[in-house]
Structure formats: C-alpha cells, structure tokens
C-alpha cells in the first residue's frame, strides 16, 4: 500500500479490515468489513449498492457492477428490507480493484488524499470487536440506507470505531458523501473570494483549500457531535425508536450517560 494509494493484495487482508472498491469511472466506492474466509459483510439499499430515491440513481446505478444472472453459491441472498448482507470477496469486488481504508492517519496524509472516503483520523477498535459488530448487524440490521446520511461507508466506519454522528443537522461520517457535496460547495463558497483574487489559478487554489478544510472538519476523527454506541445498544435503539435512521434523515435521542460522548 503506497503513500497515496490504498491498493492492497488479497493475501494481505486480515479479519476486521475495512475494504472498498471503486466502481465505474470512480463515481463512488463500495465499502465493507472483511471477516476472513474470503467473506465480506457490507451495507446496501435493499440489496442494491446505492440508492437515493431520486434522479441520482440513474447515474449511480449505471456505474455499479453488472449483476450476474446466476446466484453465487457462497453469498447470502438479500432479503426484502434487510440492507446488511454477506458476500464472497469476488462478488463484493465485482471485478474492481481491492483497497484498504486507512485509520489513525496524520492530518498531513489526510489532506494529501484528494478524494474523500479513503482514510480517517479516527482510531480503529481491535479486530475482534470490529468483526463482532459486523456479524451482529448482519443479523440485526443497520436501519434504512441513505446515500448521504447512512451508507455503506457509514456502516463500515461504525463497525471499525463504534462512533455515530447523532446531530441530524449535519452530514454523516461518510467521507465520499462529503466529497460529493464538498466539491460543488467549495466552488460556491470560493466564489465571493473573487473580490480578493481574480486570478483563475488563485480561485482554483482557494476552492481546493475550502474543499480540503470541509473534509477535515467533517471527519469522524475530528468531530465532537459523535457518540460511542455499543452495537447491542444501537440495535435496541433502532428497534425502540430512540435512534431513527430513515430515508431522509438520521436523528437520535440524547444519551442518558453523558460519559459516552466522545471528546477530544
């Protein structure tokens, strides 16, 4: 795995690794937890990798892998209403290249990664805890899929860290969601600065700076509006409505024990 590339070989994988693979034209990446024995647990939208319920689906689904007409004998069949699935590594990659997501990176390396959804400042929990979370959510679910608030990367980061963003007025922890929004947002925010610099190169540099700043501020390892939620408590909250993950938003009731709020 190089400085700016997270590409790895299949032989280097270990249980608990957060892996991903870019789809056609690098429009989006699909993320999952490798649990060993060539098996990956990942989060989908009713069996589909992506989905917004909007016109964006035409773009995202068209870039996704082609579905085989013959079901895989290894992968678990997707059930209606169940988004967490188990797949063999081959089906998960769908012909794409294997990458490993990086944790506890330093700020300089984080900012050097131009594309979001490849690394985080947050620290991963031990591998056995990561695998336990993934298997538990395979049996109990992770709520409803939402490309901006509750997607495959959010699921995988939760499995690795146990952290959830609970402020519904902010973005989820997904780096690639921030990238999708952050690029256009950076261009918009940098527009008023044309009064300061009219040079096109200066404007481009300003837009990049704004974009990188938004990625850094939104990273799960930097945010203060996150809580450490045990996986058993997460599914209980989902079942009782204390934590609501729906198609259009994420919201959560305040934790009774304030000591569980992550501070840095």
Rough outline: globular
Q: Determine the number of helices (DSSP H or I, runs of at least 4 residues).
A: 8
Low-confidence stretches: 168-172, 180-190, 245-264
Average of per-residue pLDDT values: 73
Strand pairing plus helix content: what structural class? alpha+beta
Summarize the main sheet.
5 strands, antiparallel
- Rg, Å, rounded: 18 Å
| β-strand amount | 5-15%
What's the N-to-C terminus distance?
Answer: 29 Å
Multimeric status of the protein: single chain
How is this structure best described in words?
- With 264 residues, the chain is α+β, with helices and mostly antiparallel strands.
- It is built from 8 helices and 9 strands.
- The strands form 3 sheets. A 5-stranded antiparallel beta sheet has the order 4-3-2-1-5.
- α4 packs across α5.
- It is globular and about 55 Å long.
- The chain starts with 16 loop residues before the first strand and ends in a 12-residue tail after the last strand.
């Amino acid at each position: 795995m190089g400085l700016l590339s997270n590409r790895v070989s299949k032989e280097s994988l270990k249980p608990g690794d957060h892996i991903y693979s870019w789809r056609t034209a690098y429009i989006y990446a699909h993320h999952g937890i490798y649990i060993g024995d060539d098996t990956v647990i990942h989060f989908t939208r009713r069996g589909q990798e992506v989905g917004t319920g909007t016109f964006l689906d035409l773009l995202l689904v068209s870039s996704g892998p082609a579905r085989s007409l013959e079901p895989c004998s290894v992968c678990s069949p997707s059930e209606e209403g169940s988004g967490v699935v188990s797949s063999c590594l081959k089906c998960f990659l769908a012909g794409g290249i294997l990458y490993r997501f990086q944790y506890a990176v330093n700020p300089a390396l984080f900012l050097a990664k131009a594309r979001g959804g490849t690394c985080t400042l947050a620290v991963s929990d031990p591998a056995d805890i990561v695998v336990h979370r993934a298997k538990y959510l395979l049996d109990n679910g992770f709520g409803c899929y939402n490309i901006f608030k509750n997607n495959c990367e959010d699921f995988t980061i939760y499995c690795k860290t146990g952290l959830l963003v609970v402020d519904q007025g902010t973005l989820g922890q997904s780096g690639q969601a921030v990238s999708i929004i952050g690029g256009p947002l950076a261009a918009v925010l940098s527009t008023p600065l044309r009064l300061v610099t009219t040079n096109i190169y200066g404007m481009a540099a300003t837009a990049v700076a704004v974009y990188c700043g938004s990625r850094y501020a939104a990273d799960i390892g930097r945010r203060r509006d996150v809580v450490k939620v045990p996986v058993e408590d997460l599914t209980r909250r989902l079942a009782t409505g204390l934590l609501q993950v729906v198609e259009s938003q994420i919201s959560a009731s305040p934790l009774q024990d304030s000591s569980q709020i992550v501070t840095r």
